[in-house]
Amino acid sequence: MLTQPEAEQLMQTAKRFVRPPAAVAIPPGVDETYELTAIEGREKFLLDLWRGTIRISKLKFQERVRITSVLARLDVNGAPHTNPDLTTVPGTHLHLYREGFEDRWAFPVDAKLFSRLGDPAAIFRDFCAFCNIVEPPPAQGWIE
């Protein structure tokens, strides 16, 4: 389990794709995982992208470290989430690592960070920026 300062430092770490694809596309029903690495240091990360099959507007963008520790997950157009304190956030929300709770806390999405939640390619770019992933590949071929 990560400490909170460790998780925050890992979020701030600049990362890049290990084998960047020519473009990132996520058609309905696809679940992709990309390897990332810290630009400085040897830490490895994973970027998970998922899109629903029936509701193609349902998306998941997730950054993990050390294989299982979720640092951040953006759920778009999913089910509402209930936090450990029993507060509920709407279907589009952002999970952030919290020591002792891992990724079980979610927060409403800040429109300044994710301004175009109806555009999957824009969400991908915004999520990469939020997770400090530099030089992400272009997002192309996304079915709107």
What's the N-to-C terminus distance?
37 Å
Shape: globular
Number of distinct helices: 2
Name the structural class. alpha+beta
Supply Rg: 15 Å
Major sheet attributes: 7 strands, antiparallel
- Parts with pLDDT < 50 across at least 5 consecutive residues: none
Element pattern in H and E:
HEEEEEEEEEH
Number of domains: 1
User: Approximately how much beta-strand content do the residues carry?
Assistant: 25-35%
Number of strands: 9
Determine the fraction of residues in helical runs and give it as a percent range. 10-25%
| Averaged pLDDT | 94
Descriptive keywords:
9 strands; 31% strand; two-stranded antiparallel sheet; 144 residues; alpha+beta
List the helices and strands and how they pair.
Elements: H1 4-12, E1 15-17, E2 31-38, E3 44-51, E4 59-65, E5 69-76, E6 81-82, E7 88-89, E8 93-96, E9 106-108, H2 120-130
Antiparallel strand pairs: 1-2, 2-3, 3-4, 4-5, 5-8, 6-7, 8-9
Polypeptide structure, described:
The protein has 144 residues and is α+β, with helices and mostly antiparallel strands. It has one domain. It is 14% helix and 31% strand. The protein contains 2 helices and 9 strands, in the order αβββββββββα. It has helices spanning 4-12, 120-130, and strands at residues 15-17, 31-38, 44-51, 59-65, 69-76, 81-82, 88-89, 93-96, 106-108. Strands 1-2-3-4-5-8-9 form a 7-stranded antiparallel β-sheet, with helices on one face. Strand 6 (81-82) and strand 7 form a beta hairpin. The chain is globular. The model has no long low-confidence stretch (mean pLDDT 94).
